[in-house]
Write a structure and sequence with these properties.
- The chain is of the alpha/beta class.
- It has a single domain, classed as CNF1/YfiH-like putative cysteine hydrolases (4-Layer Sandwich), CATH 3.60.140.
- The chain has 5 helices and 15 strands.
- The strands form 3 sheets. It has a 7-stranded mixed sheet with strand order 2-1-3-4-15-8-5, with no helix packed on it. It has a 6-stranded mixed sheet with strand order 6-7-10-9-11-14.
- It is globular and about 45 Å long.
- The protein starts with a strand and ends with a strand.
């Protein structure tokens, strides 16, 4: 498996400042991992390589809702879980909302966009393409959440809701939480022609050019506003739209695959 390892020292790194590490190749799988979780959380943001899905889902697709076969998705999921040495996992029925649900064992996918747990060895799986997937970890109370956030999730501030939910359920304090955010739609591709109707005025200052918005910085601002510390936030800062060799993008190709971000407590 090839691993992209990102430094947690700065959240404003450019591509040439990132550190790359190699691990053994395992069926061609590639994933992004975050230094802030090193030795603490089993995790990976899986790129599009190493699966069995055919075009346009080639090849590591994790969603049947896009038209891929259940057999391919199941096999792809098994490969990813095996690479993380996990035998149990939980999906969500994602609806682009702000709801975060606790899971303690495998159940039917709950209708939500965030999953949280304090159970060791239970992989939390969120699918995405252009949207952000964020991993939240509380090293004090040993709790974990994996969250899907598209622009609607950002508007609803699902990250703040995750901080609130983990605090209420596990006693997590914002300044103790560590967060890693997946590759997602970058500022040069995040066009919102109707932003005055779709985005709150507080987002408008993150406009990098007419109609284009930096959701990486919006997310960072929301997390800081929720009480997280700057050096506890890692953002991959890889644009899914402009890197088709590694990442699916709904905006670039609506009929395509979906990635998975998976994390579990050790």
């Amino acid at each position: 498996m090839e691993v992209f390892l990102f430094s947690g020292i700065s959240t404003i790194e450019t591509a040439d400042q990132r550190r790359w590490a190699q691990m053994d190749i395992d069926k061609g799988l590639k994933k992004v991992v975050f230094e802030v979780f090193e030795g603490k959380v089993v995790h990976g943001v899986f790129a599009r390589h190493g699966g069995m899905s055919e075009k346009p889902y080639d090849s590591l697709n994790f969603s049947v809702t896009v038209g891929d076969s259940q057999e391919c998705v199941d096999t792809n999921t098994e490969r990813a879980l095996k690479s993380l040495q996990l035998s149990r996992f939980q999906r969500a029925y994602q609806v682009h909302g702000p709801v975060v649900r606790e899971v303690v064992s495998q159940i039917e996918p709950p209708k939500c966009d965030g999953l949280m747990t304090n159970q060791k060895g239970l992989g939390l799986l969120i699918t995405h393409a252009d949207c952000q997937a964020a991993i939240f970890y509380d090293p004090i109370h040993k709790a974990l959440a994996v969250v899907h956030s598209g622009w609607r999730g950002s508007v609803a501030n699902i990250y703040q809701e995750t901080v609130r939910a983990m605090g209420e359920r596990y006693g997590s304090q914002p300044e103790e939480l560590l967060v890693g955010i997946s590759p997602s739609l970058g500022p040069e591709a995040a066009e919102f022609k109707n932003y005055k109707e779709e985005l709150p005025r507080s987002f408008w200052e993150f406009q990098v050019k007419p109609n284009y918005f930096n959701f990486w910085e919006i997310s960072r601002w929301q997390l800081l506003s929720a009480g997280l510390l700057p050096h506890h936030i890692e953002i991959a800062r890889i644009c899914t739209y402009t890197t088709p060799e590694d990442w699916f993008s709904y905006r670039r190709a609506p009929l395509s695959g979906r990635h998975a971000t998976i994390a579990a407590l050790q």
